[in-house]
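TL;DR need structure tokens for one chain.
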Amino acid sequence: MAMEVGESKGAMKDPNVVPLIDVLLVLIIIFMAITPMIPQGLDAQVPQPAPPNQKQQQQLNERTVVVQVAQDGSLKINQTAVSWTELGPRLLDIFKVRAPGDRVAFIKGASNVQFAYVAKAIDIMHESDVEKVGLLTKKVEEGQ
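>> reply
TL;DR here they are.
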């Protein structure tokens, strides 16, 4: 409590902060009690290593679509040569049987290919109902 000694008979100059401290201590206790009840973090799925059987890996490799652009502008879909006019219809044929969330393809360009070829191939891939296009680099292929 605040107390003033002396002759002044007016109002006290110093505010009484004891009730304020009491309220703050009660709030601290309430927050300390509530904090453990708040959920911490998010649920996440951690990638698991592939099982030792190679059959599943083979099926995954068969479903992977990689469009390769060579330095001279020639194209390949999974090691099969195609022309620029055939690229769109071939991709439509490949992806028409797949579910909407499974329409993913990768594009791989030679190290010294003009980017215009790669951009044109990406445009054709998007026009052919490919939902996601991933860029395949040497580091990605090597697993780095």
